[in-house]
Amino acid sequence: MADIKAPVVWRDMDQAALDAAYDQNVYAPNRLQLLERYSANSDTTRSVLGAPQRFGYGETEIEGLDIYRSTRTNAPIQIFIHGGAWRSGTAAQYAFPAEVFVRAGAHFVVPDFDWVQVHNGDLRPMVAQVRRAIAWVARNAGKFDGDPDRIYLAGHSSGAHLAGVALTTDWGGEFGLPSNIIKGALLCSGMYDLKPVRLSARSSYVSITEEIEHELSAMRHLEAIVPPLVVAYGTLETPEFQRQSKEFAAALTARGHPVDLLVAEHCNHFEILETLANPYGLLGQAALAQMGLDSSRL
Q1: What's the count of helices (H) and strands (E) in the chain, helices before strands?
Q2: How many Cβ atoms sit within 10 Å of the Cβ of residue 294?
Q3: How far apart are the first and last CA of the chain?
Q4: In the beta sheet, which residues pair with residue 79?
Q5: What is the CA radius of gyration of the chain?
Q6: What is the DSSP letter of 4?
Q7: Alpha-carbon dihedral of residues 153, 277, 82, 46, nearest 10 degrees?
């Protein structure tokens, strides 16, 4: 009797394969070790740099951001949007790249925001918070000696998804800010089209309607993206996270949009982010170059 193949759900994947392709535990068995290292290295970073300044960008307690300040006045600003599958992670756990930027002469800003389960699976409140956090930084940069004309954005994993959607914001219409308020962005290991996510097991905790799928897929709104981008992924990532990055970068390139695609050899989804904390690492070097900062200062 011939084997009965499971039906294809997405591209050449059946349901089990697609679910695995959006489950980091399958492709990164050292996930918990690396997340614990993020936290430990963030504690070490604070022991060196001191506690961050904390500012509120909204009305609720979670709507705050941590600012690790450079000694340089009117310094450029790197805003980092953390990951966590939209349902975990805090700003305090993602301080570990801060020293690279602070030593190079930039402020490093990490916003906190709600997890998706707080809003019954709706991603839109998280997107709104990220947008408001960016707008707050642009309007209040002077409070921490930051340059509002040199704001850069980075994000990892679900944070790269949120950052990618933020790049499609109508900053003028929604916030009265210049359309080019973000001067450059680095998106690492993200999701830029929510259709396969909607079809995967992540739909058990994320509620993605057709409307939300379209609204919150940066891939569907390439014309709204203004700044040059760096898009990165690791060769040990899931096949879908690799594909999403490659196709997003290719679509931008086809439009003539400036984008660099970086590939971290032998790095999984969590290992690649650690290179942001190294001025000579793949992401650290790219982020500093994008900001026009000199790693030799370190």
Answers
A1: 11, 10
A2: 12
A3: 66
A4: 109, 153
A5: 19
A6: P
A7: -110
Q: Which of 17, 23, 25, 35 is nearest to 271 (CA)?
A: 35
Give the domain range for residue 146.
8-76+89-183+194-227
Is position 150 within any domain? yes
Cα-flanking dihedrals φ and ψ of residue 43, to 5°?
Answer: -60, -40
pLDDT tens-digit readout, 86-111: 999 999 999 999 999 999 999 999 99
Per the structure, the count of domains in the chain is 1
- DSSP for 197-263, please give it: HHHSGGGGT----HHHHHHT-GGGGGGG--S-EEEEEETTS-HHHHHHHHHHHHHHHHTT--EEEEE
CA distance 82 to 37: 15
The model's pLDDT over 35-83, given as tens digits with 9 standing for 90+, comes to 999 999 999 999 999 999 999 999 999 999 999 999 999 999 999 999 9
Q: Is 298 helix (H, G, I), strand (E, B) or coil?
A: coil
